[in-house]
Specification:
alpha+beta; 32% helix; four-stranded antiparallel beta sheet
Length: 542
């Protein structure tokens, strides 16, 4: 025991006197020996930390050869293991990278297919909009397809739509925020009036610029320019009748305490009639605000119109009970008309000569002489036999023409009351049913439209031997409209908040046909309103 203690003491002294390097080497030798022994006993492999600790001393330690070989083999195993891990990591990274590139490619392809599908869908919507008679909407959808420029088939369809619009006489659109109720051109055709249920009456020039706005607290159901075009009249949904000075925009009430439902202006603008239940009130709108007189009926009044007479403007009225009367300019009853169809009268149209009156009913129209007699000449007899509907006189007297729609809506008739050669100057049979027909003020142009959105403009010849000319034929929803007095333009309405301005001039269309597609897009850029947010959302454009 004394010997062992002395030996340990001597060893400790020797160790303490050794250099720091020697002490570190001995620690490493001991560590190597312990790790080698652990490997032999438990197969415990070296870790990277073990190798990093002993490797700097491997050439200076006095370890056994098998211990040194153990260290070197352990390092080789660690290097191999690290290489395998790096290879696996690299392979995994590459696989994920390839997968990511594939996914991005698939996503891009899917987005491309979706965009192509969207372009095709929108181009077909443009085609359908044009077929449905909405060229302004069709233009904007076709334009959007061309802007996307990602599908050749869709672009081809859009280009076809634009070519059809290019070949028709469309100039621009006219928009309100609610249904349009009145359209009228100025006497020289350089500007026009539009009124709508949004409460606004607007005067606009042909370029689309607004000249004046007249705002109402309720919707406007009727409006008209007075002769001289320094004033206009308007009627609201609340029954208020107003006279507006155009320049000052001052308004004057014409029907205080009355609720007017319908108004009618004489052709020269000197007389105004307003219907209010069983009463008809008559004004001279340029002379004063109080009615000249009122005409009392025993049933609700359903229609009125002025009839030119030697003593001024007579008035023809009709009721829902089917009775009809003629009154002179002083408000005195002259006669009661016989109702040939025994039906409530829904509309009245008088001839510009003042010698004929057409009464519209649900069963058809009938025509009487201004004095109430039955007309026995050939054309009125044929008119009576056909019982057409929506009949109206042209404002001209030479020739004296009437436009009508057949009772089954299959034909449009243009009757000639002054021709010794023919009773009917034209019959037009459309695709589908006739929806609307009107004559220009000179009676020489017929614009007619069908339920299949076919709109045509015919030039009517003066003699029986001349062939009527088909000037234009295009797709448009036309529920009603008005010619300009010079017949150069036409305003059409489909019954909604949009009207379209057309220029009925072949040279205009020929010039438009001569421009490029890009020039056409630029031409309509400011003439057709852009799609609003709801429309863009509906067509999935954003």
């Amino acid at each position: 025991m004394h010997y062992e203690l002395s030996h340990d003491s001597i060893a400790r002294q020797v160790y303490q006197k050794a250099s720091t390097e020697a002490r570190a080497r001995r620690k490493v030798e001991r560590f190597i020996s312990e790790r080698f022994q652990a490997y032999q006993e438990r197969q415990a492999p070296l870790t990277q930390d073990d190798v990093d600790y002993v490797w700097p001393y491997l050439n200076v330690v006095n370890s056994k050869p098998e211990e040194l070989a153990f260290i070197q083999e352990g390092k080789r195993k660690l290097l191999r293991s690290r290489r395998v891990r790096m290879l696996v990591l690299a392979a995994t990274t590459l696989a994920f990278a390839l997968l990511a590139f594939w996914a991005i490619g698939q996503r891009n392809q899917a987005e491309t297919r979706e965009q192509q599908s969207r372009s095709m869908r929108v181009s077909l919507a443009a085609r359908y909009a044009l077929y449905e008679g909405n060229p302004a909407l069709a233009f904007r959808l076709a334009e959007q397809t061309l802007l996307w420029n990602n599908d050749a088939s869709a672009q081809s369809i859009a280009s076809d739509v634009l070519r059809e619009i290019q070949a028709n006489p469309l100039v621009r659109d006219v928009n309100h925020t609610d249904s349009i109720t009145a359209l009228q051109f100025s006497a020289d055709g350089t500007f026009f009036l539009s009124a709508a249920l949004d409460g606004e009456v607007r005067l606009s020039d042909l370029a689309g610029d607004t000249l004046h706005r007249f705002r109402h607290e309720s919707g406007v159901v009727w409006a008209a320019l007075l002769p001289g075009e320094t004033a206009l009249l308007s009627l609201t949904t609340e029954g208020a009748l107003w006279r507006w000075d155009i320049q000052s925009q001052q308004k004057t009430p014409l029907a205080r305490g009355l609720k007017i439902t319908t108004a009618r202006l004489a052709q020269d603008g000197t007389r105004l009639a307003g219907m209010a239940s069983q009463e008809v009130y008559v004004w001279e709108p340029n002379q004063g605000t109080k009615p000249l007189f009122n005409l009392t009926h025993t049933a609700p009044v359903s229609a009125v119109d002025f009839l030119p007479a030697a003593t001024g403007w007579d008035l023809v009225t009709a009721t829902a009970a089917g009775t009809a009367f003629r009154w002179n300019a002083a408000g005195e009853q002259l006669l009661a008309y016989g109702n040939q169809l025994h039906q409530p009268v829904t509309g009245i149209h008088t001839s510009p000569k003042g010698d004929k009156v057409i009464f519209q009913t649900a069963l058809g129209d009938f025509m009487l002489a201004g004095n109430g007699d039955s007309l026995m000449t050939q054309t009125p007899l044929l008119f009576r036999a056909f019982q057409p509907r929506q009949s109206a006189f042209a404002l001209s007297t030479d020739p004296e023409r009437i436009v009508s729609i057949s009772n089954d809506s299959n034909l449009v008739y243009v009757w000639n009351l002054s021709s010794p050669q023919s009773d009917i100057d034209l019959q037009w049979s459309p695709r589908g049913k006739v929806r609307y027909a009107t004559l220009s003020s000179n009676g020489k142009r017929l614009l007619a439209a069908s339920t299949d959105n076919e709109t045509v403009l015919h030039l009517l010849k003066a003699t029986f031997t001349d062939q009527n000319q088909d000037l234009f034929r295009f797709s448009n929803q036309t529920a009603w409209g008005v010619f300009a007095p010079n017949q150069a333009h036409f305003l059409s309405s489909a019954g909604g908040n949009e009207a379209l301005l057309w220029k009925l001039d072949p040279d205009y269309v020929n010039n438009k046909m001569g421009i490029t597609q890009d020039q056409l897009l630029q031409y309509y850029q400011s003439r057709i309103r852009p799609l609003n947010a709801n429309e863009r959302k509906f067509y999935l454009l954003d």
